[in-house]
Amino acid sequence: MPPDAARRSDRSRRAILVAALELVEALGYSKLTIEAVAARAGVGKQTIYRWWPSKGPLLFDALVELGPVGHDSPPSGDLAADLKRELRLAVGELAERRFDQVCRVLVHESRTDLVTLLLMPRRMVVEDRLRSAQRLGDVRPDVDVSAAAELLLGSLYQRWLLRTAPLTEDFTDAVVDLVLRALSDRP
Amino acid sequence: MPPDAARRSDRSRRAILVAALELVEALGYSKLTIEAVAARAGVGKQTIYRWWPSKGPLLFDALVELGPVGHDSPPSGDLAADLKRELRLAVGELAERRFDQVCRVLVHESRTDLVTLLLMPRRMVVEDRLRSAQRLGDVRPDVDVSAAAELLLGSLYQRWLLRTAPLTEDFTDAVVDLVLRALSDRP
Amino acid sequence: MPPDAARRSDRSRRAILVAALELVEALGYSKLTIEAVAARAGVGKQTIYRWWPSKGPLLFDALVELGPVGHDSPPSGDLAADLKRELRLAVGELAERRFDQVCRVLVHESRTDLVTLLLMPRRMVVEDRLRSAQRLGDVRPDVDVSAAAELLLGSLYQRWLLRTAPLTEDFTDAVVDLVLRALSDRP
Amino acid sequence: MPPDAARRSDRSRRAILVAALELVEALGYSKLTIEAVAARAGVGKQTIYRWWPSKGPLLFDALVELGPVGHDSPPSGDLAADLKRELRLAVGELAERRFDQVCRVLVHESRTDLVTLLLMPRRMVVEDRLRSAQRLGDVRPDVDVSAAAELLLGSLYQRWLLRTAPLTEDFTDAVVDLVLRALSDRP
DNA sequence: CGGTAACCGAGACGGTACGTCAAGTCTTAAC
DNA sequence: GTTAAGACTTGACGTACCGTCTCGGTTACCG
Fold this sequence. Notes:
The structure is a homotetramer.
Chain A: H1 10-27, H2 34-41, H3 45-51, H4 55-66, H5 79-95, H6 97-108, H7 112-136, H8 145-162, H9 169-183
Helix pairs in contact in A: 1-2, 1-4, 1-6, 4-6, 5-7, 5-8, 5-9, 7-8, 8-9
The structure holds a DNA duplex.
Pfam families (chains A, B, C, D): TetR_C_11, TetR_N
Keywords (chains A, B, C, D): DNA-binding, Transcription, Transcription regulation
InterPro entries (chains A, B, C, D): Homeodomain-like_sf, HTH-type_TetR-like_transc_reg, HTH_TetR, Tet_transcr_reg_TetR-rel_C_sf, TetR_C
């Protein structure tokens, strides 16, 4: 018989999520233990195991609930400027330690669904912006917008994950410039 | 007193690396234990701890020694074709389960050095090819070749890590076509 | 605030006692859990904790209410025969699985009061019979009747508890014969 | 693969047995936990589980190794005196808290073998003494010596287990006197 | 060529955390 | 307004591995 979500103690739930986030920030993911989360949250281990199967989903919930929130800004008329701003936001988000820690592990565990949930919103914003630019003729009509979005965010995520080089704003700007050249008729 | 590499038993060393690779393939990284490696290799645990500090480096050595080998082919005159071939090779490599498992965890543990060592060779090949194309005028002289290489491989690695979509050869071809347009004068 | 016995649900009370007895018979004492009793009785755990402090008293009540009942028979004139019959009855009682289980644990927990309540009646019968025999001269007047009763039942209970040997009727008969010799003038 | 007794650490073994005995004396059996024993002995839990399956056998070993030792005295010519001394020794032994606690639980768990091992020696001494008295004619030749021993020790053990009355030396003396009367020709 | 120093297999050791179980307490919805 | 249901904190369970250690035994270098 599954636990009865209606009876769930919200106080415990929030204490657990907060504790998990604090600890993952302090210790990193692999040194984080369920026992420590329970202790810091002032909660029985069973209360964690009742509602989450393991560390991964727990941290995912913690991040979704208490994590960084997107700051949507209205698009200006300048495609390059808009994309540059968007990529800088993404970079800033990735730099937050708790977000970084949790996302890395979700990537590692191949939790596609969760990754998608956390990273996709950024991508959707980029794609939307590209599509509207395409309607205005700033982007050639034969361009695959979703591939273009992947091109923009891909190099960024790669540097984040692989740490091959620092994630500077100069870099993201350069990526935007380079990709936009591929998308437009104008040289 | 540091271990004396001269006396090292090569039989044991190889048995350990083989066992590690077999087990990581069968169980995945996180369920792989040193004890299991020792047992399967018919080796004392101490013999592993004597030569490797932890799972990560052990698997790294195993991969480097027994892992996939690059198949270098001479560049043809066709830049697009060369890049497409190169990216397909990279994709094939990433698809190998043992390589995949180990690389993911190295990424996760932020072992930059190791990641670099495993993934960089591919990138160097791409960069070299772009540079020679730049000399021949197929790529504009103001293009940052290493940024371009990152653009090419970035989206590929991203799909691999995030599993946002299947890593098909159609996709890699499309990426090459899109990026090359950004790099060349010709429309 | 103590529970209000007047409001007590007799249906629940009986269901609990029955469930307890069934389960102790099936599982033995140590594997019996309050949770299982509550579940089988279709009762909340609190309803058990409201009325009983722990497993021991609960089972004691169960036994007292639903347990074996004594079959009193009138004394005949033959002391030896009467005692032999009485000891056989006691042995039969001890052999009942649920009685055995519960009594053993009460002994273990040193619940003197409960032990007394359960085992004393048998002893009283024996003492009464010996006392009347003493009045008739079948037992020497200087004999301590309660010590004699202890002698008779002691070896019996010892075999039961320690399982040093099977509890046969031959054995109880032999005990009676042996003890009676100590109690009477006649050789 | 069973543990290799040759490699066993005697220091740990003794520390565990000592800790177990101290704790059972302080807390009683049911509140004694393996975790507490391990902690007090400065030992990993696994080291206990490696060598003992559960609390019972562990405490049994502790008692056998560190428990009360029998003080054998040579029989005098006086049967009654010898038996009285022997029963007093038995009573003294049962009064030791750690012995009491452990024996009670062994009785409860029906560990016949262990009970036998701990309690039988006393009984053997009694039987031997009775047998030699039988050879000398102090005990009638038709008496079942082992039944007689049970009579002597049975009431004693019963009082111990059931706590029906205090285990005084007056009581054990009275038992001896009463039983001896049953065993001898002389009134 | 015999001694000795390192490696080797094995596995016991003190630990940490696991995930489970039941105890006994507290809360809630329904009857 | 007591009950059933069940979530809660607590704490021990027994297991799995960790990384260290000690044990004989077996090489393989060195005097």
